[in-house]
Amino acid sequence: MVATDSWGLAVGFADVETRASSRLTLSSTLQDSKQFFKTLFWRLEHSPPHNSPIVCKPAQSNATWPVLFERLQQLDQLFQAWHEQLRALFTRQHQQQLEQDVNEASAAAERARGKSVDATASGLLDELSDGYSSDEDGPGEHSTLRRHSAKPRPRSKTLSDCHLEVNCSRKQLAPIAAKPSAKIHVGDSQAVVVRPPAMQVCIMIVGTRGDVQPFLAIAKRLQQDGHRVRLATHKIYRDFVTSHGVEFYPLGGDPKELAAYMVKTGGRLIPPLKLETLQKDVPRQMQMLEEILQSTWPAVSAPDPDGSAPGVHGSPFRAQAIISNPVTMGHIHVAEKLGVPLHIMFPQPWVPTVAFPHPMSSLPYQDKPQRRNYLSYKLVDLLMWEGTERLVNTFRSDVLGLPRIRKGGRGREMLLDLDIPHSFMWSPSLVPKPFDWGDLYDVVGTVTLKADSSSYTPSPELEAFLGHDGGPTFVGFGSMVLEDPRATTKMIIDAAQQANVRVLIQSSWTDMAGDLDIPDSVFIIGNCPHDWLLPRCSAVVHHGGAGTTAGGLLAGKPTFIVPFFGDQPFWGRAVVKAGVGVDPCPITELTTEKLRAAFEELQSPFLRNRAHRLRKRMQKEDGAEEAVRSFYRHLPLRRMRCDLDHEGMATKWSRRDGVKFCERCNAIRRACPGNDCKDVIEYRSVDYAARGQELANMTRFTCGASPPGAAVFLQEVGWAIACLNHIGGVVRDISQFLLLSCFTSWDVVPVR
Questions:
Q1: Does residue 586 contact residue 543 with C-beta atoms inside 8 Å?
Q2: Contact 293, 395 (CB under 8 A)
Q3: Phi, psi of 345 (to 5 degrees)
Q4: Structural domains in the chain plus CATH codes
Q5: CA of 471: how far to CAs of 246, 522, 578, 595, in Å?
Q6: Cβ atoms 479, 208 nearer than 8 A
Q7: Are 530 and 548 in contact (CB under 8 A)?
Q8: Helix (H/G/I), strand (E/B), else coil: 347
Q9: Which whole-number Å values give the CA distances from 259 to 208, 284, 425, 560, in the listed order?
Q10: Which of 24, 217, 630, 717 gives a 20 to 30 Å CA spacing to 261?
Q11: Residues 6+ apart with CB under 8 A from 708
Q12: Residue 641 pairs with which residues in a beta bridge?
């Protein structure tokens, strides 16, 4: 038996040779082994000519092997010659197509979109017969559309491995920078992103206003392409969202309470063992998580309860694609229920990498890759799943009608197991994309909401304080809740006076003024757009939120971060590593002396020069545009489009005909006499298979096809195996937790 994979085909041919007569000719052997012929051609087609899978003679004593090997060598030479001929043919076709494109460029015009219903009905089958096909395998794959018709051929290109790809004449966006994947070959650096037809998109966000604001920019960009976009987040942001012309839906939970709890516990996944925390805070947090989960299903499937006016429902809504941040939790489950694609977007790392640790793990961010960084993501996922498993399973079974995820059933890694694409919204100039992230994960740049800062009118006192001497140092803690705002403000004033700098303090959810006497060198303001304010300051001191960090760096200002929890320590280390900031200091360790030293260091010309250069690089990025391109690139468009009208999104499926329809085509089909609507059901473009359900599905299928006695027996066996799997899952969870805890000991020397 040959052990190497390259000789797998040779073994198959040996089996054919053993069964065949020794007098068979080469042609008859090929005829009998048609399937192996196709497999061999595929191997040779995907291998360079000089690296054929059949290159050396096998060490076999069987007398049939020399004859077989000689014939395989002949096949090898034949296919190498065929390979070269195909390559030359496609190269000539490519050159001819380029010439044809140049000649037709001046006369090319977009096909008229305003078709009448009658013309559409008569041309539906004609469009279907044009012969669209796809190499798409599921979420996270690229659309490779090929069209064969008598119409003028659109632009095409020939790849180095003899694949001829044709992009259909649809609106296209510029390429997005990405690492090559299985569907984008190394020689194909210009991957084209196809804009999908108009659809209904739901964006679900849990967090502070700084978390919501970037997604508002993405929603407005999607609206420019004709999509109906709903932004579902906490109800206190309704006015903020609707003021930008974006549809709103209220999610459960209070972001102020969530932020206060995170500040109180330091963002730890395991809360401190205090009686007040365990009796009051933890139950309240679990209640809010349940409220958030319960509200995600109507967010993607129901009208806004206060859409037109308070108490007046808005128009019906059913999401055809979902964008969410990972902490919303219900995203993957409602996407599974609807059968629609899901795309995760977040301004902090959330998938395993050795480059840096999980922001919630409290591991220090160091320069060199470490194994424990990768393991920190596994540990955080495990702890989060153990804390929310009961809520999630109740939501799946009682609200969505989906099967529960069994104990140890990999529910903590559903996003990874189902290959859900992620877009990370930070600047690659600040934190480059990790080398161990594949094509499924994109770093799209900083996403900012370009507000009309020209409409902001500052007070005369603020304008006078900003002055023309480079500006004061900005200090603001955004949506963070301070335990003692008065003491913090006094510390800022004392440190500023000792460092002899002017300070501009911004209040948000915490009143920073109080009853203190404010000196002339300090000015306190309320709400003010950062894109107007920060460029007029000399440096920034803040809590380290992703949005505020990006705003300060886009203004070209040196940064000092005072982290509270979560990803804020990560950004504190990131600005230091980039050479544009001062070493971060947690809010619990901040003193007047440390703040004074930071104020003085922020005036360094070196930091200002580095921050100015980073600003130039970041200003070339368009995070919202790249985020939308990443979203489009990962959509399974072939499965989402209507089979008859490719400008429509499929919503119905005909079980009799095996055809998917958009609403427009379905209306035409219903209008035709003799059509039975009973065979038409809701269409699901993505089929999510929850981990841990394979056994149950197999048991149900087997029992349905077996005699009654066998069905009962198989059902009993299935339950017994399920119980064993449950026990094994519990043991595995405990063992993994212990192993990860050992490998990711937070106070030990980094793993080499």
A1: no
A2: yes
A3: -130, 140
A4: 5-86 (no CATH), 453-620 (3.40.50.2000), 637-682 (no CATH)
A5: 35, 12, 23, 18
A6: yes
A7: yes
A8: coil
A9: 8, 13, 21, 21
A10: 217
A11: none
A12: 649
Positions of E strands within 507-644: 522-525, 539-542, 559-561, 581-582
How far is it, in rounded angstroms, from Cα 477 to Cα 481? 8
Angle value at C-alpha 179, between 178 and 183, nearest 5 degrees: 95
pTM: 0.69
Interhelix angle 209-224/546-554, nearest 10 degrees? 70
pLDDT number for residue 70: 66
* 296, two tokens: 């995600």
In angstroms, rounded to a whole number, what is the distance separating the alpha carbons of residues 278 and 283?
7
pLDDT tens string 364-377: 877 788 999 999 99
Strand blocks (E) in 376-465: 422-424, 441-443
Q: Which residues of 298-324 are buried (b: 16+ CB within 10 A; e: fewer)?
A: bbbeebbebbeeeeeebeebebbbbbb
Cα dihedral 639→337→295→397 (10° resolution): -170
Cα separation, 559 vs 541, whole angstroms: 6
Span 234-279, pLDDT tens digits: 999 999 999 999 999 999 988 888 877 777 776 666 665 565 656 6
**Residue 46 half-sphere exposure toward CB, CA atoms < 13 A:** 9
How many beta carbons lie within 10 A of that of residue 452, not counting itself?
9
If phi over 0 gives left and psi between -120 and 50 gives alpha, with beta otherwise, what is residue 7?
alpha
Structure tokens at 334: 């409602």
CB 626 within 8 A of CB 176: yes
Degrees (nearest 5) of the Cα angle 687, 412, 260? 120
Name residues whose C-beta falls within 8 Å of residue 453's C-beta, 6 or more positions apart in sequence: 529, 531, 532
**pLDDT for residue 62:** 47
**HEC sequence for 456-501:** CCCCHHHHHHHCCCCCCEEEECCCCCCCCHHHHHHHHHHHHHHHCC
DSSP letter at 565 equals: S
**Cβ–Cβ < 8 Å for 471, 235:** no
- The helix (run of H) or strand (run of E) holding residue 40 is helix 34-45
Residue 463 near residue 471 (C-beta atoms within 8 A) = no
Helices 592-601 and 485-499 meet at what angle, rounded to 10?
Answer: 50
